[in-house]
Specification:
Layout: H1 2-38, E1 48-52, H2 56-61, E2 64-79, E3 82-99, E4 104-117, H3 118-122, E5 130-133, E6 136-147, E7 150-159, E8 162-163, E9 168-177, E10 180-185, H4 197-204, E11 206-209, E12 215-224, E13 228-241
Antiparallel strand pairs: 1-2, 2-3, 3-4, 4-13, 5-6, 6-7, 7-8, 7-9, 9-10, 10-11, 12-13
């Protein structure tokens, strides 16, 4: 009986040590992953990494992690030499496999959400004045939530050197096409004069490409919200490193 009791105590102690070592290892790994993400240079805040699943050590031995979550407050996505600020990125990675001495990593599937603020999206909306008719210019001066899945676009017009007293408001629908967030006016605004449709749409319609995403992942959905447009991304066989 005493031997059995001793064996149980040893098993409990060893089990506790294994759990402790496992948790220390996962905390160390989360910090290492966060440091590597931070070293990419595009993140403006320290990322938070959570590796789920127990035990962690057996996952590492198998060169794979079943469930990893990454959260970043802000980072810059670069496209064609320009950047757009991405906020509140939350990504869920499943089936992360390593190779090449952990120098390469690929996720079986990935999905996530992020937000582009209206001020940052406005930079893609051709904010400089555009000539729409002789003596008449117009430009987008504001973007906001229009409700019911719409973006409210405010267009300011100037006629023969006089700015109209109030911007014209247009409700627009955002979509995702070819890796871009595209915004298209549902109906063209009236500027008080006859203007060709293509000229007006040069102002009201615009697109913003979101680059710098890992290979295998793409934009899937965009939804207007109070503080900006919320974008969703998803993909498979996503290359994370290497």
């Amino acid at each position: 009986m005493r031997a059995l009791r001793t064996l149980l105590i040893v098993a409990v102690v060893l089990g506790g040590l294994f759990v402790l070592v496992d948790r220390l290892a996962v905390n160390y790994a989360e910090g290492e992953v966060a440091d590597r993400l931070k070293a990419s240079g595009s993140m403006n805040a320290d990322p938070e990494v959570s590796i789920h699943g127990f035990p962690f050590l057996t996952q590492v031995v198998g060169s794979g992690l079943e469930d990893v979550e990454v959260s970043v407050k802000e980072f810059d996505a670069s496209t064609d030499g320009k950047s757009v600020r991405i906020a509140d990125l939350n990504a869920h990675l499943r089936g992360v496999e390593f190779s090449g001495g952990f120098g390469q990593a690929t996720a079986r599937t990935a999905e996530g959400t992020a937000r582009i603020g209206y001020d940052d999206l406005l930079k893609a909306a051709k904010p400089d004045p555009i000539d729409v008719a002789p003596g008449v210019t117009a430009k987008v001066v504001g973007l906001s939530d229009g409700g019911n899945g719409k973006i409210k676009v405010e267009v300011e017009a100037e006629m023969f050197g006089t700015t109209l007293p109030k911007p014209v408001e247009v409700l627009s629908t955002p979509t995702v096409q070819d890796g871009e967030v595209r915004v298209k006016a549902d109906a063209l605004p009236s500027l008080g004069i006859k203007v060709a449709e293509d000229k007006v749409r040069e102002i009201t319609d615009f697109q913003q490409k979101v680059g710098g995403l890992p290979g295998g992942i793409a934009l899937s959905k965009v939804t207007p919200a109070k503080d900006g447009v919320e974008i969703s991304v998803e993909g498979s066989s996503v290359r994370l490193a290497g």
